[in-house]
Predict the structure.
Amino acid sequence: MSTTNYIGKPTSRVDGPAKVTGTATYAAEYSVANMAYGYVVSSPIAKGKITKIHAEEVLALPGVVQVFSHENVPSLAWFDRSYKDDVAPGGSPFRALHDADIKFSQQPVALIVAETFELARYAASVLRVEYQQEDHETSLETQRAKGYEPGAGKTGFQPPPAPRGNPDKAWEEAPHRMEAEYVHGAQHHNPMELFSTTVEWRGEGKITAYDKTQGVMNVQQYLTKIFGLKKDDCRVVNEYMGGGFGSGLRPQYSAYLAVLAALELKRSVRLTLTREQMFSFGHRPHTLQYLKLAANADGTLAALQHHALHETSQFEDYTENVVNWSGMLYQCENVKLGYQIAKLDMYTPLDMRAPGAASGSIGLEIAMDEMAYAAGLDPLEFRLRNYAERDQNVDKPFSSKKLRECYHQGAAKFGWDKRTQAPGSMRNADGKLVGWGVGGGVWDATQQKAAAKASITADGKLTVSSATGENGTGTYTIMSQIAAETLGLPIEAVTFKLGDTDLPESPLQGGSWTAASVGSAVQSTCEALAEKIFKLARKMDDSPLRDAKFEDVEFASGQLRLRADHSQAVVLRDVLQASGEAKLEADSSVMPNMVKQNGYSLHSHNVVFAEVTVDEDLGTVHVTRVVNAIAAGRILNLKTARSQVLGSVVWGLGMALMEETVMDHKFGRYMNHNFAEYHVPVNADIHDIDVLFVEEEDDIVNPLGVKGIGEVGMLGVAAAVANAVFHATGKRVRDLPVMIDKLL
Amino acid sequence: MNPFTYSRATAVADAVRDKASHPDSEYLGGGTNLIDLMKENVARPTHLVGLNKLPLADIEALPDGGLRLGALATNADTAWHDEVKSRYPLLNQAILAGASPQLRNAATNGGNLMQRTRCYYFYDLATPCNKREPGSGCSAIGGYNRVCGILGTSESCIATHPSDMCVALAALAPTVRVSGPNGDRTIAFDDFHRLPGDQPEKDNNLEPGELITGLDLPAKGFEKNFSYLKLRDRSSYAFALISVAAGLELEGNTIKDARLALGGVAHKPWRDQEAENMLKGQPATEDTFRRVAAKVVADAKGHGSNDFKIELAKRAIVRALKQAAEGNQHAADVFLNSNP
Amino acid sequence: MPQHPTNSAAAGVAAPPATSPVQLSINGQQHTLHIAPWTTLLDALREYLHLTGTKKGCDHGQCGACTVLVDGKRINSCLSLAVMHEGDEITTIEGLGTPENLHPLQQAFVDHDAFQCGYCTPGQICSAQGLINEGHAHTEAEIRELMSGNVCRCGAYVGILNAVKEVVDKGIKN
């Protein structure tokens, strides 16, 4: 048998064959008997009341089973707390079909259930709903004065730290200064898979919900509280998720509506939202940022102020950490950070890939570029001169921080030393303007409590499970790698199961913490199983290990052997067969080691170098080259990790050049609510992208030493592109995305 | 999508008769626009006359030296046809600049002419739109109109025609062959689409029940000196903000004949014959092109978020004419002009 | 503010359409479906034949997830009615390969990690097969352009390019 050391190796996805053959099953693809189809009717107005629903007209259609609306939903849980999910922000969660009030455009106002999808869709199109319209307010610009500081409420939200030093005075006195406002519009996650729930009616009030979610546990607790179900009667499953990016962190109204219909009709129901309806819920909020930086003559930061304002709904205080990063990425003694939100008549925003940091890094990293130019310094040199050795926000050292190595290795790979500083000074062979820009960021390395179970059978097959998720991050693969390496098995002998509330509890899949949290649980569980196997191995007749201690042995190449003498070994399969046990099981639950972590700031870092070409007459921009250097602890799988960062870069390019959900305030409605007009990058937009993982050892973050890479790779990409555009053209675009019209 | 019946026609006359006998019916070619509009409930026909078995998919040479494009030839087959590539490379490039490979494989030439606007409000039933619901008002005026028109607009509609292919056709000036309840006729391409005026619900000048059967391209293809320039918000699979089809016939550096049409600016593919006449007899210089470009947009009117199109159109015209004069564009199986 | 009338699409409610038998040939197998004309090819595959490898990403021809091959040509199955395809040979991802016997494109997608969540992947692969059948894409730039009708929100474009290029190149050698 060849090596079973999988951790760190580029390993092809174990779920690859299922995905490339179309046999991987997503939420809308479970085949259940006697299923009816749901279709949501959405509000055309942003604020007001439903005055009449002519349900009888469509109920007359043969094949229409029911029309659910606030007029006929059964009495459900009363208190707000029943509708709070694990990551709900402060406030009162939205309840679909709860009353006649319209709180946002595209709010679900009715659910049609019919025998076929086509009939439900048709019935939805002819259902007459009358409204009394009221004045709405959807413009953040007009609500600047109404911004307020939110209280705590959402898990993970940290209000900005208190100011340090005297930033106002330091700014006034510094030789180099800048101040500017930066803006980006709302963006929608737009995973490829539409939100969908197939609810299987199992009789007697029992259901299985195959739901598109990043957290089956979160959806289960949400549904059981609202509908008064026992956990055993409400199983939630998600084996494959066609992209999440945060959109599936909170239970969607589609899951609630599908379960409502199934329970009321005592029948299986499938509900899939339309792409247009994918713009009816959470999104990255429209954000205004104000930055004020000053530099000393020696190029060190004298003062830094960063204030952000973004939208939230009328009913919840959505929060994200936008400005905090600015107090820790660079060394600065005089810092003031401010953060406010303002209420609008729209749905509550929702965490979207690198929430807060992706936005904040636009403001900070473009401002740093502006500051570097004002101080007459190369933007990379300026960052190096302000390198933070400690996290000044909390006054703690970093558990590890190889950002300097990222700067050096990334710059070398990119060829940054050939850059000329003056805007408009570089051109390519065709005479087009060329610009080089840099940006970067910092993200939390977080570990959550997670549990796993492992079971090995006499044929040497290992099954490990945890109720985590797979939305493209490679969970199946990295967990299989950890399990295989821990028990010295070939990866083909390992099956990892996830996405099922019947499995051991796991946190929501987000925050870049799955590898650290579930990975640690899988490792710990497999180690517990290893100990059990070892005990059996010692009892074998003539066992070469009978006098060994557990510390003396290792699991490798399908064997259990003495570390000191590999010839003293037993084959794993033989151990089980000799024991007479059909299978051996272990489980464990792992918490972060707070004692160990407490004295440190735990973060991943990156830097991005981007090259653009700009047609100065026509304003077209192409990103021809990107180098993204990342320090994120140990990389479990170079292949899937690289893919995640490549994807992050594509996201960053989208944010820089094209993504923006545009609202017509007259209607309080997003108008480009489709894939034809909400542009995400296509293949032709993408050119050379290089990913560098800088070696970073860290035994403080968690025993695996991983920090997570789902979000950090996106930081600074948009800013690097915007900075490159400035370098190419001399035009400073502070309002993303950088579209043609802004460069004419 | 509302209920409808479907029949599959096997001869043009049957199709025309079938359509005439069903009120609220539509012809169904590739379906790439009509089915989309039906899903959005913008189009609500109660009967579809399926055309895909009609013998109208051929592309054949005409005795006058022109080329006949069957109405049911797909956009892809047309773009990649040897005669189109060698004689009408402008058309080849314009088609390949549009939509996606999958859409071009299904979409037909007749259907391309029949495409409806991509104005956000036309597609969204929550908002008034004169084109969708005459008399309800135009939401794009005073609204979000990045994709809307700057030329030939009216107080009732500022929508644009979304096609790339039709911009090249406007420059090449074919005749459109149609069959209808009152027999066959031809329509000059420039007369096929219309400006919105006070009837924006009417995209074209077809009579009720008329079916496009083909397009007859004249012999002149401007195959040496042409350009199709497309500017959009991403590198591919996006509608044009501005597109320009330019064809020049040069004698030395003097322009003997010229064609110039724009997409993304008007309710119809915008051919400017006065601009073409201005070019004739002039030297093919940037100075000439600038004067012509200024003329084309002289009467242009922005509506807020599309104001930039006036300047962009001007610059795009100059660039396209320069490229055409340089003669360095060629037919190709892939449109790569958006690349860096 | 005025009363907002309604968001209903039609003045009256018409009866649901009648179904009739429709013969479809999919991956070499004949199927008879009893469907109305309003059933798209995509919904016929997913909801009536349970061939769920073909994905619904937008239902409006704006993403390419639903790409199938009709007589060897790639199209968006969401913008096509099932009734239009009687007499055509339809190939879906299920017709290209199986987990045990991967098609060269499927193997190349696995090897190059040309996907993450996997939802756009069947459409990408069918599209790539269509691209190869067309025979017009050879260079990287040409492949990028002719694969641009398939949106990948995970951003796996680098892997997709490399996977398709590998198979295209092999085809050229053969």
